[in-house]
Structure formats: structure tokens, C-alpha cells
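A favour, since you know our C-alpha cells better than I do. Would you make up a two-line entry for one protein for me to read? Write everything out right here, beneath this request.
=====
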Amino acid sequence: MEFYDKKLVEKLKKECHPYYVPDLLFDGSEYKLVRLEVKWAYVACLNVLLNNALFDNDGYAYFKDDNPMLIETLAKLANKKVDSEKMKGYISELEDVELLTVSARDVYLKRIEHIF
């Protein structure tokens, strides 16, 4: 699984959009069985990563699983109430479908490149 690294995070941050949405996540056959809510949770995670990335010793970007911006961002994207338990469930589902990896409390997102 390839993760976002510092170089790609910086590149995506320069592209001025309110939110980054990987089109392959919604249009690609690889992800057609992933629930829509879970896809939006990935988008929320990606945007938190782009705005608040931490970097490990290998240069890979991650964020902490309790970042309060996750809930706030997903609530805005989905236009619905989201709490920490729901977010934990989404993170677990994202890990099950191999769209992210959790190491201790650090969350690494699988790299999906086609952005619209």
C-alpha cells in the first residue's frame, strides 16, 4: 500500500480547492463496494491530512486518530451529525477495505491520485 508522502501533500496543498476528492474513489470499479459514507470519511481524512499532516521518519504523512478536525470536516462534507464513535467506525471500515492503516494512534491513508 502506498501512502501520501511529504512531496505529494505539498503538491496537493498548492492546488486551491475547498476539498480534495479522489475521483477514483467514487468512479473506480476498485471501490464500488465501499459504502458512500465511508468514501466521504476517506475524503474527510484526506483533507485533514492535507491541512494538518505530521510526517514520520520516512517522510510519510499521517494524522492522529483523535484529531477533532476529522469529525468537523466529515460533518460538513456529509451535512450530518458525526460523533467520535461514528468516526471510529468509519476508520475501522476504511482499514478493512485497505484505504488506510492505523499504527498505534497514527493513521496513514492509501494514496489515491486522480483528484478532481
Summary: The chain is about 45% helix and 10% strand. The first helix runs from residue 6 to 14.
